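Journal club side-thread
Mid-discussion, someone asked how the predicted structure for our own chain would compare to the paper's figures. Pasting it here so we can look after the session.
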Amino acid sequence: MKFLKPSNQVIVGLLFLSSSLYSAVQIIQPSENAYEDIQEALILAEPGDVIRLTSGIFNLQDSLSLDVEGVQIEGEGMDQTILSFADQQSGAQGLSVTSDNVTLQDFSIQNAKGDAIKVKGVTNIKFLRVKTEWTNGPNPENGAYGLYPVESTNVLIDGCVAIGASDAGIYVGQSKNIIVRNSRAEFNVAGIEIENSYYADVFDNVATNNTGGILVFDLPGLPQQGGHHVRVFNNRSVGNNTDNFAPEGNIVGEVPRGTGIIIQANSNVEIFNNEIGDNDTVNIAVVTYGNETDDEAYYPHPKSIQIHGNKFGPTGYNPDTSKGELAEILFELSEGNMPDIFWDGLIPISQIIFGQPENEKMIISNNGDATLLAIKPIGFMMPFLEPAILDINEFDGEISPLAKVEFDENF
């Protein structure tokens, strides 16, 4: 049994779990000493403990951190329990977690100086009904990430909301076994992003009013590369037309305003049963990583991409020509009739000559009256050849469904 020093703001409760095991529950209320109360509880916590934050606004001046495994931090609702970092004086995040088997639920983090919640190098992390927000609207001075688990295994994000991140609202990077569901991302540069990760299911989410709705990226120079086996399904990625407000030099600063879904340099990606529309530039873009890199192990081309059963709405009616040549090329080749699905057509030179392996070819099937434009690199460079494929039926084929992502959610 563990005893903690109580105060007017901290009430200690004990929950009887078995004849030999007790779990401490600390109930913390807003006060002038809120930061000290919460951080002390996180430092002194033991596995199985619950840190319960009551309703109200907790004004915090420094980053919170947790490195004790098996702890649950819970509030009384994302709109009732608010951790405000508007006056944050130090620290790179709102909350940092570096321990396994942690659950975060039913609270909000507002206006963190940097990332709202960063989780690094853990096994088993749950975000349940957590909200991150920068309340001054889209602004390059906002923190980069809302929910930000990296280098982790068994990541569950369920029923969460992310608003105003200058990079990605909901981001999972260099991780394995990922579920993002029932969540909403709005007014971020990237709404939901899966980067350099293996085995991810992204479903039943809404991405709207972002610059780009849902991104599946793989980038060079990172310890884990070759992102693969990502399913994006039953989502609504609509109206993502916020001007890109990423700080200068950020890779997502290259994302054109008005993109529904972007797949870059990943393999085995299945995009299905989504509603994608009202995006200014393009509904789905499949692209190669286009920047120079010294990383010789990096493979920059997407492969084994399957797009099927999606419902498309209007797109391309106000293309963003400020971010590179993508929109300009699309507009020119489509003669102003912008496609729902775009592929830049870039593959290794050997495959241009000898053809792609069958299991790496893109399959596009059963997407209603969706339109497509796929660049033919040689034809694009030679004025007497056809520069693009416009017939979506050329990509028709048999779908090979990817496996469902499953792990024990009851740790």
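Post-session note: The first strand starts at residue 10 and ends at 16.
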